[in-house]
């Protein structure tokens, strides 16, 4: 039987996309412990500018430096999300309104409009 869930990390050109090496194991271990979802234990890395992105149902995007997608990355990100893809974005250092958070939010605003992101109370 083929695994049902693959942890896919997005590699992007700006910033530092591979900041938290523990996150895949943390999520995969929690899925195994608390769910019955079949899990592929091998993390997959896809470039945001690649069409391989569209083969993933779940993607993890991390960093704590500037996020500034190039035109291909921006187009792929927008198409991926609009077609039902799920992106878990993580600043990895919990720096509220830090550089990663501000630049990622600005990228989302430019791709999806000023009301695309909302703070969760």
Order of helices and strands: EHEEHEH
Radius of gyration: 14 Å
Q: Largest sheet, if any?
A: 4 strands, parallel
Lateral arrangement of strands in the main beta sheet: 2-1-3-4
| Tally of alpha and pi helices | 3
Mean pLDDT: 90
Stretches with pLDDT under 50, minimum 5 residues = none
Structural class: alpha/beta
The percentage of residues in β strands lies in: 15-25%
Kindly state the number of beta strands. Answer: 4
What is the end-to-end distance? 40 Å
Q: In percent, how helical is the residue content? A: 25-40%
Assign an overall shape.
globular
Descriptive labels:
single chain, 121 residues, alpha/beta, 3 helices, 4 strands
Description:
With 121 residues, this protein is of the alpha/beta class. The chain is built from three helices and four strands. Strands 2-1-3-4 form a four-stranded parallel beta sheet. α1 (23-34) links the parallel β1 (5-11) and β2. The longest helix is centred in the last third of the chain and has 14 residues, at 99-112. It is globular. The protein starts with a strand and ends in a 9-residue tail after the last helix. 17% of the residues are buried.
Structure described in brief:
The chain has 121 residues and is of the alpha/beta class. The chain is built from three helices and four strands, in the order E-H-E-E-H-E-H. A four-stranded parallel sheet has the order 2-1-3-4.
């Amino acid at each position: 039987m083929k695994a049902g869930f693959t942890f896919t990390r997005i590699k992007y050109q700006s910033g530092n996309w591979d900041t938290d090496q523990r996150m895949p194991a943390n999520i995969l271990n929690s899925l195994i412990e608390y769910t019955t979802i079949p899990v592929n234990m091998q993390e997959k890395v896809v470039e945001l500018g690649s069409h391989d992105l569209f083969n993933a149902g779940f993607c993890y995007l991390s960093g704590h430096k500037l996020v500034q997608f190039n035109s291909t990355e921006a187009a792929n990100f927008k198409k991926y999300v609009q077609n039902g893809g799920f992106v878990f974005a993580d600043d990895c250092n919990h720096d509220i309104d830090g550089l990663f958070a501000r630049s990622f939010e600005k990228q989302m605003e430019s791709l999806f409009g000023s009301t695309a992101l909302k703070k969760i109370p």
